[in-house]
Amino acid sequence: MVTRTQQGAAGAVLALGLAAAFYFWARSGTPSTASADGTAPRGPAGPVGTEADVPRIDLGRLESPKARSGAGRRDLFDFGVPPTLPPDPTVRATPVPAIVGPPPPPPIPTPTPLPPLTVRYVGAIEDKRGLKVAVFLTDKEEVLTGQAGQLVGNRFRIVRIGLESVDIQEVGSEQTRRIPLGGK
After folding, report:
1. Which of 42, 18, 19 is nearest to 31 (CA)?
2. pLDDT digits over 101-151, tens only?
3. What dihedral angle (degrees, nearest 10) is formed by the CA atoms of 126, 128, 129, 134?
4. Secondary structure E strands in 14-164
5. Torsion (CA) 115, 120, 121, 125 in degrees, nearest 10
6. Which of 88, 114, 127, 129 is the most buried (most CB within 10 A)?
7. Rounded to whole angstroms, what are the CA distances from 99 to 77, 102, 103?
8. What confidence tens digit (pLDDT) does each residue in 30-64 have?
9. In whole numbers, what is the pLDDT of the chain averaged over residues?
């Protein structure tokens, strides 16, 4: 069912549409008072494409010599002739005396820092026999599992599984690190 408000809105839209159509129809019927070259129109408009509507192109201008202009000929980076520098006196290097004595001791090798791990310790599962299995989650959302002493992900070995953490050892190094539950 259509209410009175909807009928009034539809009537207002229809009235606005008719007013806009009348406005554009009235404007299209009036000829312009001047053409593009500034002269008054010569009479009623004829069919499109007649001689009066199409302006002439002056092709004689193509053969005329072009005016010389300085535009585009300036070099922004040409500041003039660079100054000539006086010749430098030759500087002779003095020889450095060699230090005679025992060679310095070799530096003490420091352990290389471990690369950041891309796994997170999720938790551990223990069965009735007391066998614990650690569960890890990688950055790529892959689940890895392993027992103490096993190689996991071809990257690290599980050393010990605790209640809230797991100790792992990187393959190829003797350093162990502890990962807390839910941490990296």
Report:
1. 42
2. 788 888 888 777 666 678 899 999 988 888 899 999 988 889 999 999 999
3. -10
4. 119-126, 132-138, 143-146, 151-152, 156-161
5. -130
6. 114
7. 52, 9, 10
8. 555 445 555 555 545 555 545 567 778 888 888 88
9. 79
What's the pLDDT score for residue 90?
73
- For tokens 């209640």, name the residue: 163
C-beta separation of 152 from 144 below 8 A:
yes
Q: Tell me phi and psi for residue 109, to 5 degrees.
A: -70, 135
The residue among 131, 140, 172 whose CA lies nearest residue 154 is: 172
User: Which pTM does this prediction carry?
Assistant: 0.39
What are 121's strand-pairing partners? 136
Beta bridge partners of 124: 134
Task: Please name the amino acid found at residue 158.
Answer: I
| Contact criterion met (CB below 8 Å) for 156 and 169 | yes
- How distant, in Å, are the alpha carbons of 1, 56, 165, 181 from that of 123? 65, 88, 8, 6
Query: CA-CA distances (angstroms) from residue 80 to 70, 73, 86, 87, 160?
Result: 18, 15, 19, 21, 77
- 110 token code pair: 């420091």
